[in-house]
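User: If you would, consider this record:
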Amino acid sequence: MSSRDLQSLATSFIHGFRDAILGFVYFYKLNRDTDVPVSVEKERSTTVTELQRRREERLPRRPTKKSERPKIRKRILQCCLLNGGVFLASIFIFDHLVIPVLSYVTHMMLGHEEGVRASVWLWLSVLASGLFKILWILPLFIISRVVSFIWFQDIADAAYSRFHPKATQSSSPGMSFGTLIADLCFGLLIQGLFLLQAQVAAVLPIPAIAQILSVFHMSLSNAVYAFEYKWFNIGWEVNKRLHYVEARWSYFLGFGLPLALATSWAESYWINGCIFAVLFPLLIVSANEATPSAQEAPFELPVFALVVRLSNFFFSHGVSRSQQTAKKQPQSSSSTDWAGDLTARSEMPRLVPS
């Protein structure tokens, strides 16, 4: 690899890292900007002539489109409040208030018997921690994941309308129902297998290499997850999305690195999940405003080759089994047409690993 190739990779990496950090700047600008200044609106109303006013009255009034800025701000603040305010606050209160109080009460009641106190505290701490995780942390975590997933979609749609108003006004053909279902299923399967691949890389026997590979996988996963909302609105199918990432892997590595580092410092999976839910909306806003370099990397990195092959295997076998079941059981024409469309489109996301 030449020095020019290394310079190209470093430049693309820094470009992606900068675009990810700019999400905080975009959010700050959304809080400061207003839709239309009042002074400009008044000046515009005074310069309208009588003839222009009559012409405007004759023309049919178009419905004014509401600004997407308040919606973006609202959803981001809700994510911060739910995951940072409620979830993290409950963990902090339990670790720094409930546990010390239980320890103090146990010491006051059984302080004169050291052995008994140690045994009772061991069982009591394990029981309290288990009940707290089962009855509070786990249900709240599931609820916050579901709610955050809905809010992520709202933020992505609002950010796309905010930063790409012409694209939202123009009519695009879009995907058919069968293509949409096949793309979603195939994309979710690839994401799950890629996270599994990251977990396998994290348990390699050499700790330094395992940590680097884990951060590498999580950075790419964060970038793909953030950009997928924008690409889905554009109409890119999963094969085009993955090829785009593999051809510009250095940019997306830098784009997802800040969030990967922020969600890997804590030892608790719950805390890292909350940090992800708080910071990921800003990454969605950054992805909608970001402009990846048109120049591809010096070499393509087929990091999704294995998961694509496994996804093709599982997806094709699942569709073939559904077809066999459909042949045995009589179905209506609409469901048969939908299954045929889904089967035909399931072959499209296949990638040929380079």
About this structure: The first helix runs from residue 3 to 32.
